[in-house]
Amino acid sequence: MKIAVINSGSSSIKFQLFLMPSGKVLAHVLVERINEQNSQVTFEYGNNKHVITEVIATHYEGLKKINTLLKEYGIVKHFSSLDAIVHRVVHGGEYFKQATLIDDEVIKKIKELIPLAPLHNTANLEGILISRQKAPNVPQIAVFDTAFHSTLPKEAYMYALPYELYEKHKIRRYGFHGISHSFVMKECAKEIGKSAEELNLITLHLGAGSSACAIKNGKSIDTSMGFTPLEGLMMGSRSGDIDPAITLYLQRELGLRVDEVDTLLNKHSGLLGICGDIDLREIEMRDDELSKIAIEMMTRRVKKYIGSYIALLGRVDAIVFTAGIGENSPTIRTKILDNLEVFGIELDKAKNACNSTLISKKSSRIKLFVIKTDEELEMASQSKKILK
User: Fold this and answer.
1) Angle between helical axes of 104-112 and 118-134 (0-180°, round to 10)
2) Which member of 83, 103, 104, 145 is catalytic?
């Protein structure tokens, strides 16, 4: 069974072709800088890799280019010969709590949710519409980043605002990175040798965008991102948690418009705002005061979430680090876990330095794991249930 997974962004398309149920990757294509003069297509299959630079003006042309490459190298003749096409959709609101077969009603609902994620859902929807046009008879499935967090209890997803704002406008915590948290939860369960439903975990997706999740008996009961992906941990260019009155101050005293405040918090804050760089690898190598402060701020915030989630969960079987920073930075993991011995957390420094999968000491009451996330494989796996 050949299943294609598409993640359509505002100026990019990530495409991965799987042979299921084995999970073997047949091809990986990344189309970047759509509608720019130096668009780039990176095509990988087997041990081969090709990088092509040409103008890709639209998402339609991007998917057409992917189709051409798959045909040219004898991998797939046409999208219409696939068994399914799976799409990542960032925001599913309260409508979608699991992977869903796409029809006209689903498309209508995704459109309705655009105000909650204007950049993401608009781009995701464009990928869906083009794919349906190119392969009208192939099942198209949507997997929602918010779905994993649909199990949050009401006291976790509600904000302390007038209740009618939730009733009329659905202002609440939704959470994101759900596909990633779901995948590493299952992988951690395999490592421990138990079912996910038996485990209490804290999963930390740390990358350019970062989020923490408290998982009880295999279900998300709390997560750091909220109504939007801006809330929670300090990120590459996003502020994370701040006093909400700061936004009012910026408008009233500095004269910033609403859109300028939005841009400041999402694109000019976080690590970038503090030390002028978004790449943590570069920041770790620098010796200036602001770089050091930025790292301390970021790791301190994660540490605070770990403590609060231990309080919520009571028993924690494991903490899982994933995504670009979580998987690759022993220094950041060390800073986050420092002085948490009171919770029974004991880091094995040698294993941590090697980015081993299990990085805790044998005596640690809470196991510590580094698990590489694979959102595309998780999406393909979830789609199998729909196809059955």
Assistant:
1) 160
2) 145
What's the topology of domain 193-370? Nucleotidyltransferase; domain 5 (3.30.420)
The tens digit of pLDDT for each residue in 189-208 reads 999 999 999 999 999 999 98
**CA–CA distance from 258 to each of 84, 159, 354, 383 (Å)?**
41, 21, 45, 39
- Please state, in angstroms and rounded to a whole number, the distance separating the CA atoms of residues 180 and 302: 17
Question: The tokens of 140 are what?
Answer: 């198209």
Classify residue 197 by its DSSP letter. G
Contact 333, 298 (CB under 8 A): no
CATH number of 2-144: 3.30.420.40
Instruction: Give the model's confidence band at 251: pLDDT under 50 very low, under 70 low, under 90 confident, else very high.
Output: very high
24 C-beta neighbours (distance < 10 Å), count: 9
Structural domain boundaries in the chain: 2-144, 193-370
State how far the Cα of 111 lies from the Cα of 39, in Å rounded to an integer: 28
* Fold: same for 2-144 and 193-370: yes
103 is catalytic: no
